[in-house]
């Protein structure tokens, strides 16, 4: 989504208030007064044909009357009735206004008539390139550092470091009132209203470049343009936190579903998976929003969940431990070295473990020493200090000691000074020093776990999975054939969804290398018994019906049939029970498959559902008949990498069962992770799939097998194929950019997009470059390629950045010989280009090949311009740019040449 011209809204020099008024408590009156009272330093133009002067400013009959000899109005604040707004927007466009905030209400929030007015506004705005609109139905916005209050709010946002974005205008008013009381400030405060144009992703991208914004608080009721949101959020959270409160956590109802998965994955699950993958931290209580924002912006993210607790009272320490374990944190196990140090520093009666009880008579130095030891322990990720006022307690001096200890460590230190007036001076001292302090141990622990969550989510930001792994062969034509045959076989009704039979579903799984238990269809008892005899007993028999989702619920499953007699009885019983419970169902007979026996297997449930916002979502949980009862599930966006698949499994309560448990051998975890990845590739490759479930997926120490499967697809998506990956919220690895190339020297090169796994080869490439090559490419010097540096270049968001590497096989090893990098702006209009060729590969024509290929990709991505910064002494690259039609801007005295090309 474009961020261009948002500066016209947030940093205007000329503002018009259209519909300004002196009518008491009208939106037009409040907006004009707020703009003036806020101290806006630019020009203010009230617009209303009924007045000649308002609030000491000349009032204009229309925008056309305003003298624009010094340039047009930057921002128009519209306060007129809804029906007039389309015409006002047209006037804005004709007058050259590029920023609009619509405070008026009465649009789609009131019904179909309002929807029509919104549609008219959208159509009008499209006729004026670059016109940006916030709203309608917006409370407005404030930019305190620019003294801009373009709202009709009763309270004013003061300066701070948090950008607040809300879909609820009423909540904005409440938050402003609360923030004024608590002394909380903002870098920007935005009510986005109905998001006719400017949306959440636009604002995240814009605030990412804002010098005053250290974090974003986001209140959302729904998200549009999921891929743009994910891309913007992931870019922002690489360096700064986003804290999200998502309203509407529970679906009022579940629509009828074709699979178990369809009934089990709701919109809430999709939001949770997406926000986690975006690196955002979600809070469940509004009261946590600002505490969390301040904490995450100021504190180092912990390496893990291991917390040490230092206290002078046993009871509050136990309270903190309970809160920590309840939130799945870990009580740090102190090292022997730390225990020895504490033994030497503390009285003999100290707790000799964690929590570290320094006893009720502890002075400030005893607290400080204990905190310092805990922070130095490699087993500790953070420290919580809980002070309870005793007769001997010195709250202020103890705060100073804790502050000094915290300064010497990068690990987070949180505090709770329990009590009232006696501890107030200590609390104030901690706040002034930037050490987080909370009223209760539970609140402090909750904040620590938000830090842990932020650290975990950030660590996953760079896990961009491949769409298809190397060496993975897929017969996509065969999959499409299955879909097309199923569509042709349907009765021609108007159903949106069709369900593949168990046999066809398993055929699709097998095509993706997912092991399945062979299943055979039998239309009558004789055929079923013959199949059972041939595959060998024991067998499983299940009802074969496209109308029945939950086979067990209708008595349609019989397990462990040990001989022909048992199979015959099972057939009769399945038919009788199914016909009794579902007389309306179409029954095609039964399916027969071998019974997977043995005590070592663990049953899992794997499924996916395609939703309207974030597209396909994957689910993994404990399987079998207790799936819905135990509710042990986790969710993720496809496709999966190894790390993402493993994290899904680790987050299950059943995770310990997959390992060695009570004498049972562990499952083949590597194989299970691979199967989960393959399932995710199937979902990613097939936008036709609306729902999929595999229940159970049996994992044993030696194999992983899908015992049952069901896939529901959308008929229209088969008849009218969608663009690849349009149903995914995150763009997967672009295999389409892989191509072999032979250099002029005869050396074979593979050009492809970079991937996270390339980090070691990228670091090796950097290590082989001279200081001159490093300076020419990066415009600054560094000693070595750290993981943090490599992460910036090897982990790409393929929606907005693509690095093309040249991979060669040299001396029997694959190496990177060079990299061409394209980074697009948020508008997707202009891309910055840079190139690096390893010293050993210079002079082979590789630089020219990389440049030409990157230019070709830029055209495919429909970017409009390419720009590059080049050192003046880099004659070889400058000549390459010039020969390809770039204009070279050689600024006198500058140490850089700007190369530009319009595509």
Automatic annotation (TrEMBL):
Q: Does the keyword ATP-binding apply?
A: yes
Q: Which InterPro entries match?
A: Acyl-CoA_Synth/Transferase, Acyl_CoA_acyltransferase, ATP-grasp, ATP_grasp_subdomain_1, CoA-bd, GNAT_dom, Ligase_CoA_dom, NAD(P)-bd_dom_sf
What is the name of the protein in this document?
A: Peptidyl-lysine N-acetyltransferase Pat
Q: Which residues form the N-acetyltransferase domain?
A: 749-903
UniProt entry tagged with the keyword rRNA processing? no
Kindly state which keywords UniProt assigns to this record, in alphabetical order: ATP-binding, Ligase, Nucleotide-binding
Q: Which organism is it from?
A: Novipirellula caenicola
Positions of the ATP-grasp domain: 506-703
């Amino acid at each position: 989504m474009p961020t261009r011209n948002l500066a016209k809204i947030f940093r205007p020099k000329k503002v018009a208030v259209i519909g300004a008024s002196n009518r008491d408590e009208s939106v037009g009156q409040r907006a004009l007064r707020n703009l003036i009272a806020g101290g806006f330093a630019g020009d203010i133009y009230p617009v209303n044909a009924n007045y000649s002067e308002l609030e000491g400013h000349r009032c204009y009959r229309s925008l056309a009357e305003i003298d624009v000899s010094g340039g047009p109005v930057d921002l128009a604040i519209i306060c007129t009735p809804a029906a007039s707004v389309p015409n006002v927007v047209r006037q804005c466009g004709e007058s050259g206004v590029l920023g609009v905030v619509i405070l008026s209400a009465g649009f789609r929030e009131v019904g179909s008539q309002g929807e029509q007015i919104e549609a008219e506004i959208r159509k009008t705005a499209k006729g004026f390139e670059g016109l940006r609109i916030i709203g309608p139905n917006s409370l407005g916005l404030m930019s305190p550092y620019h003294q801009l209050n373009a709202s009709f709010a009763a309270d004013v946002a003061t300066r701070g470091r948090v950008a607040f974005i809300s879909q609820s205008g009423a909540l904005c008013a409440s938050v402003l009132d609360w923030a004024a009381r608590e002394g909380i400030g903002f870098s920007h405060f935005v009510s986005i209203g109905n998001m006719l144009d400017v949306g959440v992703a636009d604002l995240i991208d814009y605030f990412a470049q804002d010098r005053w914004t250290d974090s974003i608080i986001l209140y959302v009721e729904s998200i549009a343009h999921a891929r743009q949101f994910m891309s913007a959020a992931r870019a922002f959270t690489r360096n700064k936190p986003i804290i999200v409160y998502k309203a509407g956590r529970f679906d009022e109802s579940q629509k009828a579903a074709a699979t178990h998965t369809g009934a089990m994955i709701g919109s809430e699950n999709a939001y949770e998976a997406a926000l986690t993958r975006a690196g955002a931290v979600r809070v469940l209580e509004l009261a946590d929003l600002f505490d969390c924002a301040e904490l995450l912006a100021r504190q180092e993210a912990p390496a893990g969940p291991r917390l040490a607790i230092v206290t002078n009272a046993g009871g509050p320490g136990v309270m903190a431990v309970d809160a920590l374990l309840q939130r799945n944190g870990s009580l740090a196990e102190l090292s022997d070295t730390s225990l020895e140090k504490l033994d030497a520093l503390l009285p003999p009666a100290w707790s000799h473990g964690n929590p570290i009880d320094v006893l009720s008579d502890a002075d400030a130095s005893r607290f400080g020493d204990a905190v310092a030891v805990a922070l130095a322990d490699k087993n500790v990720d953070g420290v919580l200090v809980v002070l309870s006022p005793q007769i001997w307690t010195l709250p202020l001096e103890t705060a100073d000691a804790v502050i000094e200890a915290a300064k010497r460590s990068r690990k987070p230190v949180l505090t709770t000074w329990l009590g009232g007036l006696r501890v107030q001076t200590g609390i104030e001292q901690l706040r002034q020093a930037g050490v987080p302090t909370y009223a209760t141990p539970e609140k402090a622990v909750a904040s620590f776990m938000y830090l842990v969550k932020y650290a975990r989510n950030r660590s996953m930001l760079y896990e961009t999975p491949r769409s298809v792994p190397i060496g993975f062969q897929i017969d996509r034509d065969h999959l499409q054939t299955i879909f097309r045959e199923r569509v042709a076989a349907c009765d021609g009704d108007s159903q949106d969804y069709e369900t593949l039979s168990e046999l066809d579903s398993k055929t699709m799984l097998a095509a993706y290398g997912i092991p399945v238990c062979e299943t055979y269809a039998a239309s009558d008892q004789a055929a079923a018994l013959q199949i059972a005899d041939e595959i060998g007993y024991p067998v499983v028999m299940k009802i074969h019906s496209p109308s029945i989702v939950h086979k067990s619920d209708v008595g349609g499953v019989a397990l462990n049939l040990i001989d022909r007699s048992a199979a015959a009885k099972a057939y009769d019983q399945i038919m009788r029970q199914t016909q009794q419970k579902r007389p309306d169902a179409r029954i095609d007979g039964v399916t027969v498959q071998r019974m997977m026996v043995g005590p070592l297997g663990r049953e899992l449930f794997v499924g996916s559902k395609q939703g309207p916002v974030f597209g396909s979502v994957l689910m993994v949980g404990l399987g079998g008949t207790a799936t819905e009862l135990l509710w042990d599930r986790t969710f993720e966006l496809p496709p999966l990498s190894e790390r993402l698949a493993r994290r899904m499994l680790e987050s299950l309560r059943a995770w310990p069962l997959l390992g060695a448990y009570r004498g049972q051998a562990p499952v083949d975890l590597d194989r299970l992770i691979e199967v989960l990845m393959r399932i995710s590739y199937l979902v990613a490759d097939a936008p036709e799939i609306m729902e999929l479930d595999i229940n159970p997926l049996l994992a044993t120490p030696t194999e992983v097998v899908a015992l049952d499967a069901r896939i529901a697809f959308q008929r229209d998506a088969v008849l009218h194929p969608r663009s690849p990956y349009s149903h995914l919220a995150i763009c997967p690895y672009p295999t389409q950019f892989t191509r072999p190339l032979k250099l002029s020297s005869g050396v074979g090169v593979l050009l492809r997009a970079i991937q996270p796994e390339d980090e070691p080869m990228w670091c090796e490439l950097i290590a082989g470059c001279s200081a001159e090559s490093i300076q020419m490419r990066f415009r600054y010097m560094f000693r070595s390629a750290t993981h943090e540096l490599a992460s910036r270049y090897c982990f790409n968001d393929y929606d907005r950045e693509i690095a093309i590497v040249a991979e060669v096989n040299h001396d029997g090893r694959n190496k990177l010989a060079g990299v061409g990098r394209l980074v697009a702006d948020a508008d997707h209009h202009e891309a910055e280009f840079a190139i690096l060729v390893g010293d050993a590969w210079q002079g082979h024509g590789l630089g020219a090949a990389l440049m030409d290929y990157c230019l070709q990709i830029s055209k495919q991505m429909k970017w409009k311009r390419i720009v590059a910064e080049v050192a003046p002494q880099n004659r070889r690259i400058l000549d390459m740019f010039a020969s390809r039609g770039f204009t070279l801007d050689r600024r006198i005295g500058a140490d850089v040449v700007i190369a530009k090309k319009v595509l």
